[in-house]
Write a structure and sequence with these properties.
149 residues; mainly beta; single chain; 10% helix; five-stranded antiparallel sheet; 48% strand
């Protein structure tokens, strides 16, 4: 990995979260890499993130191991996300925030392809994305316009 290219992003408002959401679009993970520590109020996803920020300028097709962490999480709800199939790979489509009537709390929604969703009840928006040094080349660029047969 070229030094200085690892992303280290923090989101404390909706505009910041949109940047993180774009960075993790098409990140893949397995259910075993989803963890919620209710005592620490921390929700984490260990993902293999496609490096969209490098694709245009270097023509690179690379993925990097990254941690997407949410702090101040009071509870988690799931829809069509299960740990029953340990080999199922999920792909993140977006991460959004809907504020409560009483800021700074709200609901964070992590939407997956195939209609899965995680909803986090957050006391405040506190999100961190940290890339690791583990990067590798991939043959495929995620493509949402491809027709599936």
């Amino acid at each position: 990995m070229a030094e200085g290219r690892a992303l280290r992003l923090v989101a404390e408002d909706d505009a910041d979260l949109k940047v993180i959401s774009a960075a993790v679009q098409d990140a893949v993970l397995k259910a075993e890499n989803i963890k919620y520590d209710s005592k620490r109020r921390r929700f984490t996803l260990e993902v293999n993130r496609f490096q969209w920020e490098d694709a245009p300028k270097r023509g690179a097709k690379t993925r990097v191991r990254a941690l997407l962490a949410f702090d101040s999480v009071l509870g988690v709800k799931t829809r069509a996300v299960s740990k029953a199939d340990p080999d199922m790979v999920m792909s993140i489509l977006s991460v959004t925030f809907a504020p409560d009537d009483e800021p700074p709390g709200g609901k964070v929604s992590i939407l997956f392809s195939g209609d899965g969703e995680l909803q986090l009840d957050a006391e405040a928006l506190d999100v961190t994305l940290l890339d690791s040094a583990y990067e590798w080349a991939t043959r495929h660029t995620p493509d949402h316009d491809k027709k599936r047969r």
